[in-house]
From TrEMBL:
<dbReference type="GO" id="GO:0036430">
    <property type="term" value="F:CMP kinase activity"/>
</dbReference>
<dbReference type="GO" id="GO:0036431">
    <property type="term" value="F:dCMP kinase activity"/>
</dbReference>
<dbReference type="InterPro" id="IPR000850">
    <property type="entry name" value="Adenylat/UMP-CMP_kin"/>
</dbReference>
<dbReference type="GO" id="GO:0005634">
    <property type="term" value="C:nucleus"/>
</dbReference>
<dbReference type="GO" id="GO:0006221">
    <property type="term" value="P:pyrimidine nucleotide biosynthetic process"/>
</dbReference>
<dbReference type="GO" id="GO:0033862">
    <property type="term" value="F:UMP kinase activity"/>
</dbReference>
<feature type="binding site">
    <location>
        <position position="187"/>
    </location>
    <ligand>
        <name>ATP</name>
    </ligand>
</feature>
<keyword id="KW-0665">Pyrimidine biosynthesis</keyword>
<feature type="binding site">
    <location>
        <begin position="78"/>
        <end position="80"/>
    </location>
    <ligand>
        <name>a ribonucleoside 5'-phosphate</name>
    </ligand>
</feature>
<keyword id="KW-0418">Kinase</keyword>
<keyword id="KW-0963">Cytoplasm</keyword>
<feature type="binding site">
    <location>
        <position position="112"/>
    </location>
    <ligand>
        <name>CMP</name>
    </ligand>
</feature>
<dbReference type="InterPro" id="IPR027417">
    <property type="entry name" value="P-loop_NTPase"/>
</dbReference>
<dbReference type="InterPro" id="IPR006266">
    <property type="entry name" value="UMP_CMP_kinase"/>
</dbReference>
<dbReference type="GO" id="GO:0005737">
    <property type="term" value="C:cytoplasm"/>
</dbReference>
<comment type="subunit">
    <text>Monomer.</text>
</comment>
<dbReference type="GO" id="GO:0006207">
    <property type="term" value="P:'de novo' pyrimidine nucleobase biosynthetic process"/>
</dbReference>
Length: 208
């Protein structure tokens, strides 16, 4: 793991990431199964799972000065400003001894993507992309029952629109660089994971 010194801190007080890390972005529409499959990848391949949405929800709970703004953005299905999300991701990476990260649900738009690359200098190893119909994703989200403020039909529709308009272009960008690994995520959970396992075969299995 790299060391972090005061000299390597940026203007916001967050240290630059000066350790060598492997990052896989996990993208897909709302409810496509990103979190579910990330838990399986953590279990089998020893990655650390960083869900940008979970980090933002934890920020709301922590009573941070950005909490109300983040809460309002999530209720509207909007994308939180890049600097807020990137700061949380940077901190999580630096605070974790692991060197392999799944970044779930980020980057959500082109601005997120460019800002993350500029600030962290990290290029993803590849992008795991879960493909699923809106009909199936809507069914899953309405049955999730985790008490999320954004799992209601009104916000779900807004999230689908933001995904199509802002997040799909990010997938297209990485596709043009040959970095996208597409998965048919409409299948049952274990079948989806069988496909995921094939893609992660380059990483050694976690010792049990
Ligand atoms: N392949 C699958 N088949 C059926 N149900 C699934 C499948 N994968 C996940 N689910 C269920 O669908 C719901 C959404 O899954 P999950 O939370 O993993 O999605 P997500 O992509 O992380 O969503 P979000 O973008 O909203 O965070 C959960 O209740 C989960 O148990
Ligand atoms: O990079 C991100 C990630 C998430 N958001 C906001 O959070 C919600 C929920 O995200 P999930 O990935 O579904 O947990 C999302 O709709 C955005 O409002 C964000 O702004 N930036
Ligand atoms: Mg999720």
């Amino acid at each position: 793991m790299g060391t972090v010194t005061d000299a390597s801190k940026d203007a916001t007080g967050i240290a630059f990431i000066d350790k060598k890390v492997t990052v896989v972005f996990v993208l897909g529409g709302p409810g496509s199964g990103k979190g579910t499959q990330c838990a399986n990848i953590v279990e089998h391949f020893g990655f650390t799972h960083l869900s940008a949405g979970d980090l933002l929800r934890a920020e709301i709970k922590s009573g941070s000065e950005n909490g109300t703004m983040i809460q309002n953005m999530i209720k509207e299905g909007k994308i939180v400003p890049s600097e807020v999300t990137i700061k949380l991701l940077q901190k999580a990476i630096l605070d974790t001894a692991n060197d392999k990260f799944l970044i779930d649900g980020f980057p959500r738009n082109e601005e997120n993507r460019a800002a993350f690359e500029n600030v962290t200098k990290i290029e993803p190893e590849f992008v795991l992309f879960f493909e699923c119909s809106e009909e199936e994703m809507e069914r899953r989200l309405l049955n999730r029952n985790q008490g999320r403020d954004d799992d209601n039909i009104e916000t779900i529709r807004k999230r689908f629109k933001v995904f199509m308009e802002s997040s799909v272009p990010v997938v297209e960008y990485y596709n043009s660089k040959g970095k996208v690994r597409k998965i048919d995520a409409a299948r049952p959970i274990d079948e989806v994971f069988d496909a995921v396992k094939g893609i992660f075969s380059q990483f050694s299995k976690k010792a049990t």
